[in-house]
């Protein structure tokens, strides 16, 4: 009995000192964000993301998904609380096996540069020797299925291919942590499904942790090992749902998309989203 109390006390002490799960690649510790406009975008978000997870943030518009992702990328600072990367602050993390990359909703390619030049940009910024960056660019473009498009210009590519180039640019830096903010939101459903499948394949073949923002329940279930559901006003986490890999080999293929298991997860998440909308809506009414 005594022992259990001691354990609980030391866990509490660790929490208070901000000691995080040693496996956590990313950790949000009671993170709050109030913008200067007064908008309370996030309220006491606690979230640990462990190495190798594929975590989706799912929630209605305005619930703070992009705000949280931007903080994970170090582009915004919390108003209260802390973000930790591999247990450290951004200023002290710095090892070469602790790297992150971000992919936005738009492909954000330089229109005057070829696909290969676009993908090479972050490597040039790091002053990587050309021989090494050539290999990286080639590998990244192969991974996303754009081997034959090195010399093409963005305007010559379809929306889906532009997104592939944007993902290649992130992968060329060989990140351990990939942050993606609705990367396929603007694509048609068929292209999106294809890119989802390819992304899942890329993730499963390497030591990569992904945090992926989406509005789509189907996309979240298909891709993720865990789905974090958020509600708005103020933005907060309302559910954390592990998506157990289906089938013998844990395959997420087209058959998975129409399986009972898949539909079951969609139903669970849909119920949480209904709750999220109702709660956001209720607070909305109070605002007026
Ligand atoms: N730079 C900013 N300044 C002031 N308010 C902001 C800023 N960025 C976001 N907000 C507000 O913070 C809240 C959360 O916004 P955020 O963009 O993080 O939501 P989201 O979940 O990504 O929404 P969406 O699904 O529409 O992309 C919203 O009310 C939004 O208007
Ligand atoms: Mg957003």
Explained architecture:
This protein has 288 residues and is α/β, with parallel strands linked by helices. 42% of the residues lie in helices and 21% in strands. The protein is built from ten helices and nine strands. It has a six-stranded mixed sheet, sandwiched between helices. Strands 2-1-4 form a three-stranded antiparallel sheet, covered by helices on one side. Strand 1 (24-34) and strand 2 form a beta hairpin. Helix 4 runs parallel beside helix 6 and helix 8 (217-223) packs across helix 10. The longest helix is centred in the C-terminal third of the chain and has 28 residues, at 260-287. The protein starts with a helix and ends with a helix. The model is unreliable at 282-288 (pLDDT under 50).
In percent terms, what proportion of residues is strand? 15-25%
Can you tell me the residue ranges where pLDDT is under 50 for at least 5 consecutive residues? 282-288
Radius of gyration based on Cα positions: 20 Å
The number of helical elements comes to: 10
Beta-strand segment tally: 9
Q: Say which molecules are bound, naming each kind only once.
A: adenosine-5'-triphosphate, magnesium ion
Shape type: globular
